[in-house]
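Hi L.,

As promised, GTPase Obg:
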Amino acid sequence: MSRFVDRVTIHVAAGNGGHGCSSVHREKFKPLGGPDGGDGGNGGSVRLVVDPQVHTLLDFHFRPHAKAGNGKPGMGDNRDGANGEDLVLAVPDGTVVLDAAGTILADLVGAGTTFDAAQGGRGGLGNAALASRARKAPGFALLGEEGQHRDLVLELKSVADVGLVGFPSAGKSSLVSVLSAAKPKIADYPFTTLQPNLGVVQAAGDVFTIADVPGLIPGASTGRGLGLDFLRHLERCAVLAHVVDCATLEPGRDPVSDIDALEAELAAYQPALDTDHGLGDLAERPRVVILNKIDVPDAAELADLVEPELAQRSWPVYRISAVTHQGLRELTNALARMVAQYREAHPKPAARRTVIRPKAIDEAQFAVTPDPAIDGGFVVTGARPERWIAQTQFDNDEAVGYLADRLNRLGVEDELMRLGARPGAPVTIGDMTFDWEPTTPMGDDVPITGRGTDIRLDRSERMGAAERKQARRVRRGLADDTEADE
């Protein structure tokens, strides 16, 4: 038996970008072939697309993790790596995307509507793209960026024109079954309906959809019963229909008190999409009262008593029987007219055009603040410096020198000097902390020594091959520290 799932948490991960390649062209009789390392491919993105054939979030309930393909690394002979394959996830119409904090990121309504759930990482540049007048054959390449990782909450809000509201066992499912071809579960006990049921109704040449929302009870707007989970399925409904059980035998209940209790819950519930669907608050939606089960003699008498009182509220009142089909034709024609009138008065908002706002040239692209955790230290924040840190091979002196040049050109060094940073001050960018040396000149003014090296960086603390071999022997227990001192 299929299950209906209307709220899930998914974990999406975009693909990582491929690393750039550091390569030099080698060919007989061409000793100065130059750099020919290709760029890495971009990582694949994760996208959510509305598919009319999908009606539930059940697939995400069983498979909440989704990852796109990684980009391939670049290769020699100027061959770029292949881009990672995008991952397209089909979602039902009416899906709302929220972040972990509950902020609405997208309202996906309409077939083909797309939302980028996670952006793939960019591929790193190869040394062919990094060649310049000063670095004619760079001995390094840039690393690919990591793809975006996000935890998203998907909520399904049914797209229906008419929403049936009522207490449990009021006959909502039976009404949907006779008005449309839907076959909801019907039984003689409360809370038979555990999921919204949608039906398509044809009346007088018009077609509209009707939703059977699980039964509501007082306190539903605060989480009592099943109402809080399913009240959101009423947010997109243009017309709300109160289905009243006139044949109930429960003491203390009557049609008027049932309607008053449900109206209080609708007024207390605050839809999250007021500004998005354009239909206004639930309390402002058109109402219709459906007095059900009048085929029972006592129910017909009760309907005669309460109908004048309900008519004073300026709500249309219809007496029906889902069993004998009495009054159904009048009801469907009236619902079709109300839906058409309300949709005409509240047209769907026009599709939003993509607006591109380029950043100003002189806009600050980074910020330098004192480090609260390290005395005399500083923290550099900004999209570009943090991205450059992630792209750098820190085991390559030339790559580190290239990073220093990029930060210097951006103005980071000038800002550190303005804030009073001293030589050797710890500076943190992203997840990397290093000692700042303000006297490091620009790369264009420094002769390049060898591939992978930078004369400005005195890496005297780097272990030589003999030292690394001895340290490895010590770790394996084949030697001790005294031999290293000798």
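Residues 185-194, 219-228, 273-278 have pLDDT under 50 and may be disordered.

Thanks again for sending the construct details.

K.
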